[in-house]
Structures are given as structure tokens and as C-alpha cells.
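Tutorial handout. Part one gives the primary structure; part two gives the three-dimensional structure as C-alpha cells.
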Amino acid sequence: MEMQQMIKRSADVMMSILLLFIFSIPMGILYVVLAFHFKENPVFKSVRAKYQGNGFVMYKFRTMRSALDSNNEPRPDSERVTELGQLIRRWSLDELPQLLNVLKGDMSLIGPRPLPLEYNELYTIEERKRLEMKPGMTGWAQVNGRNNVNWKAKFQLDVMYVTKYSLLFDLKISLLTIMVVFKKEGISQDGHVSAERYKK
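Part two.
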């Protein structure tokens, strides 16, 4: 298992460098476009749980307006996502800055998706197993429905990934991720911009 983890980390570093090189120009263009579009920092930062539940700052391209409008009134999520933001989400381009998280070692290319720290207190003993590996940009739950899958099913898929992990499993998920992105399915849950917040 230790050898597999070493190979996985080496693959993460090499692939993240390669993908950052390939997408450097598109990411630069998107950064400028979003800066003008939202008139604020185009990179959104949020604290998420990584390996063993410790916190780290995760990067994403901004796809939503500020939570408060010009009158300091809260905006519903449905009004915060712009048409450009929806397009970026449809093609998963908002996730590209997480390649930097992978390079830093906070994330892996493949693993359970990183969730807010407050979720750590809501997991069952079995569900906490999803924190036994680094979170990923994509994972077994993402290629099996993305946000159309309820939380309990997502956690079961995450735990399955952790307990049955292998390099071949990662390769399978990588190939399925490409198919999922081009199908553009499961981007949002019915009635929500992405997915409803998890409540135990």
C-alpha cells in the first residue's frame, strides 16, 4: 500500500504540472474574464477537510456573485450563479485551480471530494473512513452521479473507494471522469445550484 501511495503521489505531481502547463493559457484568459465579470477576485477560496480531517484552503474559479447584494441583503443561490458561471460549471472549468492544491500536496487528482470542515462532526464511524485518503478533484462518487446522488450514497461510494483502492481503480475513474465531463450530467441537484448542504 505504501508503494502504491508513493506512485500515486508521483503521478499527482507529474500530471498536475503537465495539466497546469496545458491549461495555463486558458486559465489565464479565464482569470481575466472572471475578474471583469465579477469585479472581484476571480479565485474563490474555501476551507475544506483534507487527509485525517485537517483543514486546508481549496481554490476554485468564482462562478457566483457575492452572497450579499448592494443593499447588504442576502441573495438566493439561484440568483448568484451567472450564465458565465453556469457555463464554467458545466465544463468543470471552475475546478482547474485545484491543480495547485494537488501540486502542494493538499489534494490528489483522484479521491473523495473535499467537504467543509463542519461536516467532520456529522460523519458516522464508517463514513469517517473517507478521510483516510487525500481528497481528490474527482472521485468514485463523481463518476457515479456527481450531485444527483444523495449524501449517504456519496459517502458509501467514497468509503468504497478508500477500502478498495488500487492504481487500476484510479485509472478507471480517470477515464470515466472524461466521459462524465463531456456528458455534462449531474452538475446540480434538483432545486439547488450544486447540492444541498449535508445535514445528519
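Part three, for discussion. Helices lie at 2-22, 24-38, 77-80, 83-90, 98-104, 151-163, 167-183. The two ends are 32 Å apart (CA to CA).
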